Amino acid sequence: MVDKMSPIKKLLLQSFSLIITPMLSLSYVELNQHPQESGGNRLSYNVFPIIMYDSDIGFGFGGKGIVKNLCQKNESFDLILFASTKGEQWYVFTFSIPDFEIRQGKKYDLAFDVIFEFDKYLKSNFFGFGNNSKDNEWQFPLEFARIEANLGHAFTRTIIYEIKTSYNHTSVYGYKMANPLMSPQIPGEGEKQTFYLSSDLRWDTRDSQIHPKGGFNFAFRTDFALKWFGADYRYSRYRLEINQYHQLFSPSHILAARIWGQHIDGVAPYYEQSIIGGSDTARGYKAHRFIDNDMLLASLEYRFKIYKNIGSVLFIDGGRVSSNLTKEILTDWKTNWGWGLRYYLTVLLKIS
After folding, report:
1. Residue 183's domain is classified under what CATH number?
2. What predicted TM-score, i.e. pTM, was given to this entire model?
Protein backbone atom coordinates (compact mmCIF):
# COMPACT_ATOMS: atom_id res chain seq x y z
CA MET A 1 0.00 0.00 0.00
CA VAL A 2 1.35 3.44 -0.91
CA ASP A 3 1.31 6.25 1.64
CA LYS A 4 -1.40 8.80 0.91
CA MET A 5 0.50 11.92 -0.05
CA SER A 6 0.95 13.93 -3.20
CA PRO A 7 3.56 12.64 -5.69
CA ILE A 8 5.53 15.89 -5.35
CA LYS A 9 5.65 15.69 -1.56
CA LYS A 10 6.65 12.04 -1.65
CA LEU A 11 9.38 12.75 -4.18
CA LEU A 12 10.78 15.52 -2.00
CA LEU A 13 10.73 13.31 1.10
CA GLN A 14 12.47 10.49 -0.73
CA SER A 15 15.07 12.47 -2.63
CA PHE A 16 16.15 15.32 -0.36
CA SER A 17 18.61 14.92 2.43
CA LEU A 18 20.97 17.64 3.63
CA ILE A 19 23.52 16.39 6.11
CA ILE A 20 26.60 18.18 7.40
CA THR A 21 28.74 15.68 9.28
CA PRO A 22 32.36 15.70 10.38
CA MET A 23 34.96 13.29 9.13
CA LEU A 24 37.13 12.35 12.08
CA SER A 25 40.59 12.91 10.65
CA LEU A 26 42.34 13.35 13.95
CA SER A 27 45.82 14.82 14.14
CA TYR A 28 47.66 13.83 17.27
CA VAL A 29 49.77 16.45 19.00
CA GLU A 30 52.66 15.48 21.22
CA LEU A 31 52.90 16.71 24.77
CA ASN A 32 56.01 18.46 26.01
CA GLN A 33 57.93 15.21 26.24
CA HIS A 34 59.49 12.66 23.91
CA PRO A 35 57.32 9.85 22.53
CA GLN A 36 59.35 7.15 24.22
CA GLU A 37 58.82 8.83 27.59
CA SER A 38 55.04 8.65 27.19
CA GLY A 39 54.91 5.13 25.81
CA GLY A 40 54.28 6.38 22.30
CA ASN A 41 50.76 7.62 23.16
CA ARG A 42 49.76 11.11 22.11
CA LEU A 43 47.00 13.30 23.49
CA SER A 44 44.49 14.86 21.13
CA TYR A 45 41.08 16.46 21.31
CA ASN A 46 38.60 17.67 18.72
CA VAL A 47 35.41 19.71 18.91
CA PHE A 48 33.12 20.28 15.96
CA PRO A 49 29.49 21.22 15.20
CA ILE A 50 26.70 18.91 14.04
CA ILE A 51 24.19 20.44 11.61
CA MET A 52 21.58 18.43 9.70
CA TYR A 53 18.08 18.37 8.31
CA ASP A 54 15.66 15.47 8.54
CA SER A 55 11.94 15.56 7.76
CA ASP A 56 11.20 13.65 11.00
CA ILE A 57 13.06 15.95 13.39
CA GLY A 58 13.45 19.20 11.41
CA PHE A 59 16.71 21.14 11.54
CA GLY A 60 19.14 19.62 14.00
CA PHE A 61 22.07 21.36 15.65
CA GLY A 62 24.58 20.53 18.35
CA GLY A 63 28.16 19.53 18.87
CA LYS A 64 30.50 16.62 19.40
CA GLY A 65 33.69 16.55 21.40
CA ILE A 66 36.25 13.79 21.73
CA VAL A 67 39.39 13.45 23.85
CA LYS A 68 41.89 10.66 23.20
CA ASN A 69 44.79 9.44 25.34
CA LEU A 70 44.07 11.69 28.29
CA CYS A 71 45.25 8.81 30.52
CA GLN A 72 47.86 7.60 27.98
CA LYS A 73 45.98 4.30 27.48
CA ASN A 74 44.61 4.87 23.93
CA GLU A 75 41.25 5.51 25.53
CA SER A 76 38.66 8.04 24.36
CA PHE A 77 35.95 10.18 25.96
CA ASP A 78 33.20 11.13 23.52
CA LEU A 79 30.27 13.50 24.13
CA ILE A 80 27.37 14.43 21.81
CA LEU A 81 24.85 17.17 22.58
CA PHE A 82 22.07 17.58 20.02
CA ALA A 83 18.64 19.20 19.65
CA SER A 84 16.23 19.87 16.78
CA THR A 85 13.48 22.27 15.79
CA LYS A 86 10.81 19.54 16.08
CA GLY A 87 11.71 18.75 19.64
CA GLU A 88 14.32 16.00 19.65
CA GLN A 89 16.89 16.06 22.46
CA TRP A 90 19.79 13.63 22.15
CA TYR A 91 22.73 13.28 24.55
CA VAL A 92 25.39 10.54 24.42
CA PHE A 93 28.53 9.93 26.47
CA THR A 94 30.89 7.11 25.45
CA PHE A 95 34.07 5.88 27.09
CA SER A 96 36.18 3.37 25.15
CA ILE A 97 39.52 1.73 25.86
CA PRO A 98 41.04 1.36 23.36
CA ASP A 99 39.19 3.87 21.23
CA PHE A 100 37.00 2.42 18.42
CA GLU A 101 39.09 3.89 15.63
CA ILE A 102 42.46 3.20 17.24
CA ARG A 103 41.68 -0.51 17.63
CA GLN A 104 40.18 -0.93 14.16
CA GLY A 105 42.26 -3.42 12.15
CA LYS A 106 44.36 -4.42 15.17
CA LYS A 107 44.59 -7.53 17.32
CA TYR A 108 43.91 -6.86 21.01
CA ASP A 109 43.24 -8.89 24.13
CA LEU A 110 40.48 -6.80 25.68
CA ALA A 111 38.43 -3.72 24.86
CA PHE A 112 35.87 -2.03 27.08
CA ASP A 113 33.13 0.45 26.21
CA VAL A 114 30.46 2.09 28.32
CA ILE A 115 27.68 4.22 26.83
CA PHE A 116 25.14 6.51 28.47
CA GLU A 117 22.41 7.75 26.12
CA PHE A 118 19.26 9.85 26.44
CA ASP A 119 16.96 10.51 23.47
CA LYS A 120 13.60 12.28 23.58
CA TYR A 121 11.17 12.89 20.73
CA LEU A 122 8.26 15.24 21.22
CA LYS A 123 6.77 14.01 17.94
CA SER A 124 7.21 10.26 17.55
CA ASN A 125 5.12 8.08 15.24
CA PHE A 126 3.20 4.83 15.34
CA PHE A 127 1.45 3.36 12.29
CA GLY A 128 0.52 -0.11 13.47
CA PHE A 129 2.16 -3.36 12.42
CA GLY A 130 2.83 -5.00 9.09
CA ASN A 131 4.23 -4.17 5.70
CA ASN A 132 0.94 -2.57 4.59
CA SER A 133 0.24 -0.35 7.60
CA LYS A 134 -1.46 2.93 6.73
CA ASP A 135 0.12 6.34 7.04
CA ASN A 136 -1.17 8.85 9.63
CA GLU A 137 -0.21 12.20 11.15
CA TRP A 138 -0.73 11.28 14.83
CA GLN A 139 2.29 12.01 16.99
CA PHE A 140 3.16 11.74 20.68
CA PRO A 141 6.25 12.01 22.96
CA LEU A 142 8.71 9.16 23.37
CA GLU A 143 11.62 9.20 25.82
CA PHE A 144 14.49 6.71 25.83
CA ALA A 145 17.39 6.25 28.27
CA ARG A 146 20.09 3.58 27.98
CA ILE A 147 23.24 2.41 29.75
CA GLU A 148 25.38 -0.16 27.94
CA ALA A 149 28.65 -1.92 28.76
CA ASN A 150 30.69 -3.96 26.26
CA LEU A 151 33.70 -6.28 26.49
CA GLY A 152 35.49 -7.23 23.29
CA HIS A 153 38.38 -9.43 22.15
CA ALA A 154 40.07 -9.45 18.73
CA PHE A 155 41.28 -12.97 17.95
CA THR A 156 42.97 -11.60 14.83
CA ARG A 157 43.08 -8.20 13.12
CA THR A 158 39.72 -8.96 11.50
CA ILE A 159 37.87 -11.45 13.77
CA ILE A 160 36.25 -9.76 16.78
CA TYR A 161 33.89 -11.05 19.45
CA GLU A 162 31.99 -8.85 21.90
CA ILE A 163 29.64 -9.50 24.78
CA LYS A 164 27.31 -6.70 25.80
CA THR A 165 24.78 -5.84 28.43
CA SER A 166 22.35 -2.94 28.39
CA TYR A 167 19.44 -1.58 30.39
CA ASN A 168 16.85 0.58 28.63
CA HIS A 169 14.06 2.68 30.11
CA THR A 170 11.46 3.92 27.62
CA SER A 171 8.44 6.14 28.23
CA VAL A 172 5.65 6.45 25.68
CA TYR A 173 3.11 8.96 26.95
CA GLY A 174 0.34 11.19 25.65
CA TYR A 175 -0.50 8.54 23.06
CA LYS A 176 -4.11 7.90 24.14
CA MET A 177 -5.21 11.31 22.93
CA ALA A 178 -2.70 11.63 20.08
CA ASN A 179 -2.94 8.25 18.37
CA PRO A 180 -6.06 6.04 18.52
CA LEU A 181 -4.02 3.12 17.13
CA MET A 182 -1.99 2.99 20.34
CA SER A 183 -3.63 1.09 23.20
CA PRO A 184 -2.62 -0.83 26.36
CA GLN A 185 -2.56 -3.96 24.18
CA ILE A 186 0.34 -2.60 22.11
CA PRO A 187 3.65 -3.90 23.54
CA GLY A 188 5.71 -0.92 24.61
CA GLU A 189 3.04 1.59 25.65
CA GLY A 190 3.57 3.46 28.92
CA GLU A 191 6.81 3.14 30.93
CA LYS A 192 8.78 -0.02 30.23
CA GLN A 193 12.23 -1.43 30.96
CA THR A 194 14.29 -3.82 28.85
CA PHE A 195 17.44 -5.66 29.92
CA TYR A 196 19.69 -7.24 27.28
CA LEU A 197 22.50 -9.77 27.25
CA SER A 198 24.04 -9.72 23.78
CA SER A 199 26.85 -11.23 21.74
CA ASP A 200 28.38 -9.88 18.55
CA LEU A 201 30.71 -11.80 16.22
CA ARG A 202 32.31 -9.82 13.36
CA TRP A 203 34.59 -10.43 10.41
CA ASP A 204 35.69 -6.88 9.76
CA THR A 205 38.29 -5.82 7.18
CA ARG A 206 37.24 -2.15 6.93
CA ASP A 207 40.00 0.44 7.00
CA SER A 208 37.94 2.65 9.33
CA GLN A 209 34.81 2.51 11.45
CA ILE A 210 34.09 6.22 10.99
CA HIS A 211 34.64 6.79 7.28
CA PRO A 212 35.46 3.46 5.57
CA LYS A 213 36.88 3.57 2.05
CA GLY A 214 37.42 -0.15 1.60
CA GLY A 215 36.82 -3.58 3.10
CA PHE A 216 33.76 -5.39 4.39
CA ASN A 217 32.01 -6.15 7.67
CA PHE A 218 30.15 -9.42 8.25
CA ALA A 219 28.40 -9.27 11.63
CA PHE A 220 26.04 -11.62 13.46
CA ARG A 221 24.43 -10.36 16.66
CA THR A 222 22.10 -12.00 19.16
CA ASP A 223 20.17 -10.06 21.81
CA PHE A 224 18.47 -11.88 24.68
CA ALA A 225 15.96 -9.72 26.55
CA LEU A 226 15.55 -11.07 30.09
CA LYS A 227 13.22 -10.17 32.94
CA TRP A 228 16.08 -9.17 35.20
CA PHE A 229 16.38 -6.03 37.34
CA GLY A 230 12.70 -5.18 36.91
CA ALA A 231 12.64 -5.54 33.12
CA ASP A 232 9.26 -6.17 31.48
CA TYR A 233 10.07 -8.36 28.46
CA ARG A 234 11.57 -11.71 27.54
CA TYR A 235 12.40 -12.37 23.86
CA SER A 236 15.28 -13.01 21.48
CA ARG A 237 16.50 -10.97 18.51
CA TYR A 238 18.89 -12.21 15.80
CA ARG A 239 20.54 -9.86 13.33
CA LEU A 240 22.81 -10.47 10.35
CA GLU A 241 24.40 -7.48 8.62
CA ILE A 242 26.84 -7.40 5.71
CA ASN A 243 28.57 -4.18 4.60
CA GLN A 244 30.91 -3.78 1.63
CA TYR A 245 32.99 -0.71 0.67
CA HIS A 246 34.86 -0.38 -2.60
CA GLN A 247 36.85 2.43 -4.20
CA LEU A 248 35.74 3.10 -7.77
CA PHE A 249 37.95 5.70 -9.46
CA SER A 250 39.92 7.10 -6.53
CA PRO A 251 39.79 7.15 -2.71
CA SER A 252 37.19 9.95 -2.94
CA HIS A 253 34.71 7.79 -4.91
CA ILE A 254 33.24 5.03 -2.74
CA LEU A 255 30.55 2.44 -3.47
CA ALA A 256 28.92 1.19 -0.26
CA ALA A 257 26.43 -1.69 -0.04
CA ARG A 258 24.53 -3.19 2.87
CA ILE A 259 22.27 -6.21 3.45
CA TRP A 260 20.51 -6.51 6.79
CA GLY A 261 18.26 -9.33 8.00
CA GLN A 262 16.58 -9.57 11.41
CA HIS A 263 14.30 -12.01 13.23
CA ILE A 264 12.57 -11.69 16.62
CA ASP A 265 11.37 -14.68 18.64
CA GLY A 266 8.83 -13.64 21.26
CA VAL A 267 6.96 -10.43 22.06
CA ALA A 268 9.10 -7.27 21.93
CA PRO A 269 8.01 -3.65 22.49
CA TYR A 270 7.12 -2.04 19.18
CA TYR A 271 10.15 0.30 19.18
CA GLU A 272 12.53 -2.68 19.60
CA GLN A 273 11.02 -4.77 16.80
CA SER A 274 12.24 -4.91 13.19
CA ILE A 275 11.69 -1.43 11.75
CA ILE A 276 11.92 0.09 8.28
CA GLY A 277 11.74 3.88 8.05
CA GLY A 278 14.10 6.60 9.23
CA SER A 279 17.73 7.58 8.74
CA ASP A 280 19.12 4.11 9.63
CA THR A 281 17.02 2.09 7.19
CA ALA A 282 14.76 3.46 4.43
CA ARG A 283 15.48 7.20 4.44
CA GLY A 284 12.50 8.19 2.30
CA TYR A 285 9.96 6.95 4.84
CA LYS A 286 8.98 8.36 8.21
CA ALA A 287 10.66 6.98 11.31
CA HIS A 288 9.08 3.70 12.53
CA ARG A 289 7.01 3.59 9.32
CA PHE A 290 6.84 -0.24 9.04
CA ILE A 291 7.13 -2.53 12.08
CA ASP A 292 6.97 -6.30 12.50
CA ASN A 293 8.91 -9.29 13.86
CA ASP A 294 11.17 -9.83 10.85
CA MET A 295 12.91 -7.64 8.31
CA LEU A 296 15.05 -7.78 5.18
CA LEU A 297 16.74 -4.60 3.96
CA ALA A 298 19.27 -3.66 1.27
CA SER A 299 20.99 -0.33 0.56
CA LEU A 300 23.40 0.93 -2.08
CA GLU A 301 25.30 4.24 -1.90
CA TYR A 302 27.68 6.10 -4.18
CA ARG A 303 29.75 8.59 -2.16
CA PHE A 304 31.98 11.14 -3.86
CA LYS A 305 33.70 14.46 -3.29
CA ILE A 306 32.39 17.55 -5.10
CA TYR A 307 34.86 20.22 -4.04
CA LYS A 308 37.45 20.06 -1.29
CA ASN A 309 35.56 18.93 1.86
CA ILE A 310 32.11 19.04 0.24
CA GLY A 311 30.78 15.64 -0.76
CA SER A 312 27.59 14.08 -1.98
CA VAL A 313 25.86 10.72 -1.78
CA LEU A 314 23.40 8.99 -4.10
CA PHE A 315 21.46 6.16 -2.50
CA ILE A 316 18.70 3.62 -2.97
CA ASP A 317 17.10 1.68 -0.10
CA GLY A 318 14.67 -1.21 -0.24
CA GLY A 319 13.19 -3.77 2.09
CA ARG A 320 10.14 -4.99 3.93
CA VAL A 321 8.93 -6.28 7.28
CA SER A 322 7.01 -9.47 7.90
CA SER A 323 5.46 -11.46 10.73
CA ASN A 324 7.69 -14.43 9.89
CA LEU A 325 10.59 -15.41 7.66
CA THR A 326 8.80 -16.92 4.68
CA LYS A 327 9.20 -16.36 0.95
CA GLU A 328 6.94 -13.29 1.19
CA ILE A 329 9.93 -11.43 2.68
CA LEU A 330 11.31 -11.24 -0.88
CA THR A 331 8.20 -9.57 -2.35
CA ASP A 332 6.44 -6.19 -2.05
CA TRP A 333 9.54 -4.27 -1.01
CA LYS A 334 9.30 -0.63 0.06
CA THR A 335 11.88 1.28 -1.96
CA ASN A 336 13.14 4.84 -2.01
CA TRP A 337 16.04 6.74 -3.54
CA GLY A 338 17.63 10.10 -2.95
CA TRP A 339 20.72 12.23 -2.68
CA GLY A 340 22.46 14.14 0.06
CA LEU A 341 25.18 16.65 0.71
CA ARG A 342 27.91 16.09 3.27
CA TYR A 343 30.56 18.43 4.56
CA TYR A 344 33.61 16.64 5.97
CA LEU A 345 34.92 18.90 8.69
CA THR A 346 38.40 18.40 10.09
CA VAL A 347 39.22 20.43 13.18
CA LEU A 348 42.63 20.47 14.87
CA LEU A 349 43.05 21.94 18.34
CA LYS A 350 46.66 22.05 19.48
CA ILE A 351 47.60 21.33 23.05
CA SER A 352 50.00 23.70 24.66
Report:
1. 2.40.160.50
2. 0.81
